[in-house]
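How a chain folds remains the central question behind the approach discussed here. The record that follows shows the chain in one-letter code together with its fold in token form:
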Amino acid sequence: MIYTVTFNPAIDYVVHLPGSLELDAVNRTVQEEYLFGGKGINVSSVLRALDCDNTALGFVAGPTGHWLETGLQAQGVKTDFIHLNQGVTRINVKIKATEETEINGMGPQIAEADMKQLYAKLDKLGEGDALVLAGSIPSCLSGDTYEKIMARLEGRGVRIVVDATRDLLVNVLKYKPFLIKPNNHELGEIFDRELTTDSEITACAALLQSRGARNVLVSMAGDGALLLDETGKTHRMGVPKGKVLNSVGAGDSMVAGFLAGYLQKGDYDWALRLGTAAGSATAFSLGLATREKIDSLLTEF
């Protein structure tokens, strides 16, 4: 079974304006939609689209938390959320006008007792399971939360995927994650340099691998993706043709596609191909990738 963790999920309320956002004025929308989000939830949603059994873990609170939970379940996403007694699951307002503006909610406080409930769920994972840890850690939790989770699961045969930035990513390498997925800019930030060539990206990926990462998947937006697998082989994949409509969730979709592909065939070439198709399918859509969109893009590789 695959499990994802989203500490601070959100309902993204997306509004489209006909022109620029005008301050000190009433702005009227021409299109609206809402999306149930959070990086781990995005991964779960795309895994579900790929018919890959998984469960979304995390924390919800208040009426908005109930809306998010029932909405995901209506979409076929299995959830096992912890319900917090106080606060509300956040709403993020995404304004798409001539310029894009985001107002992200704060989210509820997660107490130590709430974390114990999450640890109890994670303690049930074992050989053959996979766990996706994606995104930042809320300020109410300690910055070493990912490390604590991975330390608890060490030696149990759980494949752990980490999609995070800077210290959050670097500090978990000692626990030998199955996969890490920085983008090329995030990889460069870790080493305080700008990466412009495949050889530079591969060299930095190899340094992270030497510190413990088994596989390093580097997403590169319109330039595709590069994978350095645990055997030391470098895989390179371009992107299919299409118009980018949405960058939100594309990296999460790549993680979902890669993990689904690897678990299907145990083949890194196929995993990278499916991951790239899934990431591109989201980038070319207003929402997350659908199975139909992913399948159509697979024919272009």
